[in-house]
From TrEMBL:
Protein name: LytTR family DNA-binding domain-containing protein
Keyword DNA-binding applies: yes
Gene3D superfamilies tied to this protein: 3.40.50.2300, LytTr DNA-binding domain
Any matching Pfam family: LytTR
Length: 251
């Protein structure tokens, strides 16, 4: 799991960081990374680079902006639909309006809570995240490693990869999040037979294609998400999808 702590009061930040580290030590829970910062932009940048079970502890009032933490949570939800979001704040009165930000906060914890109470509430948050992970069905993972980055995501979540404005930087579009990393589409296509370069800017996961529109030259994954396919690639894509279906039926 990865832990993100966003707090602009340095004393509160240090207090929370210490309590969280004590919990991890006592429970012997392993963590891939822990990001502690006062900068929302830095936290959001790191979220884009991190793929795993994530938990976020966010202050609401940041740098004098009364609802900045809610805005940050909303941006997190755009790339991580399953992460556990917890607000640690003096503004518990904002709890009823979080639905408007569509962030599905797991808990609101008051900053002035006694240490023992806060510690138990934090443990509850971690246990919620870990229980979801342990009870979830085991899925085949796509594991990517190179000199720049490493991550893993379930194959069933991968829709497509697309190029970005930055040379050799790709964006992986999953069902519930986005991942930015450095590689080329050619490298990605060669990693698995389910990956198919449908266009000079896109490699798709053939397993998650819902429809190929020949007239529009588009691949649809669901009602909201699609990408382009070169018309000369349509026949090859359909043939490869058919081959994959036959293989899976035999298995």
């Amino acid at each position: 799991m990865n832990i993100f702590l966003l707090e602009d009061d340095i004393l509160q930040q240090q207090r929370l960081d210490l309590i969280i580290r004590e919990i991890l030590l006592e429970k012997r829970w392993s963590v891939k990374s822990m990001i502690t910062t006062a900068r929302p932009d830095y936290l959001l940048e790191k979220v884009q680079e991190t793929v795993d079970q994530n938990i976020y502890f966010l202050d609401i009032d940041l740098n004098g902006e009364e609802r900045k933490g809610l805005e940050v949570a909303s941006q997190i939800r755009q790339v991580d639909a399953l992460g556990v979001i917890v607000f640690i704040t003096t503004h518990s009165e904002f709890a009823p309006i979080t639905y408007a930000y569509k962030v599905s906060a797991f808990d609101f914890i008051a900053k002035d809570s006694p240490v023992d109470e806060m510690k138990q509430r934090l443990i509850d948050c971690f246990e919620n995240l870990l229980s979801v992970r342990s009870t979830g069905k085991k899925e085949e993972l796509f594991i990517f490693n190179n000199q720049h980055t490493s991550f893993q995501v379930p194959f069933s979540d991968i829709l497509y990869f697309e190029t970005t404005d930055i040379s050799h930087k790709l964006c992986l579009i999953c069902k519930n999040r986005l991942v930015n990393f450095y590689a080329t589409l050619g490298e990605i296509e060669n990693l698995d037979p389910r990956f198919f370069k449908a266009h000079r800017s896109f490699v798709v996961n053939l397993e998650n294609i819902a429809q190929i529109d020949r007239a529009e030259g588009l691949i649809y994954f669901d009602e909201d998400r699609s990408c382009m396919i070169s018309r000369r690639k349509i026949k090859s894509a359909l043939e490869k999808m058919n081959t994959l279906n036959q293989v899976f039926q035999k298995n």
